[in-house]
Specification:
Helices cover 32% and strands 14% of the residues. It is α/β, with parallel strands linked by helices and 142 residues long.
Length: 142
């Protein structure tokens, strides 16, 4: 079966077509009613101001988004429910380790910081903690 390509030098649209986000965005108005199923890989990119047009202009009744990083720091992941129907399945890294992912270990390595480095670290760590609180992400150790 031949597969269409839109982007990366290709401009051939077939019943099954692979496209980059940029090319799908540029052609969104022309692609609107061409597909019954649209699959968005790395769906966390879709809520961006321009890329959301791809989903908004599409009449596809079936939509699937795939990503390992659903939540966005700017909270635009909340738009995914409107754009593709929201999250229906999720697996934690710990559930995949050793089977679908390589076995891993988390090891804390400490180091001494200068006063300036410590201040910078604390500033960035505060941003990180605020993100964790906002997204309700749970960090688990080994």
């Amino acid at each position: 079966m031949e597969i269409g390509q839109l982007g990366g030098g290709g401009k051939k649209i077939l019943p099954i077509t692979v496209s980059t986000y940029d090319s799908a965005y540029i052609q969104a108005e022309n692609l609107g009613n061409m597909f019954g199923l649209v699959i968005f890989d790395e769906v966390h990119h879709l809520p961006a101001v321009g890329y959301r047009n791809i989903a908004e202009f599409s009449a596809a009744p079936y939509r699937l988004g795939l990503t390992a990083t659903y939540e966005r720091e700017d909270d635009l992941h909340s738009e995914l429910n409107r754009l593709i129907g929201g999250k229906v399945y999720e697996k934690q890294v710990s559930e995949l380790a050793g089977g679908h992912l390589a076995t891993y270990k988390i090891k804390r390595v400490t180091t001494k910081l200068t006063e300036e480095e410590r201040k910078e670290y604390e500033q960035h760590y505060s941003i990180f903690l605020n993100y964790i609180r906002k997204t309700r992400t749970i960090i688990k150790g080994p």
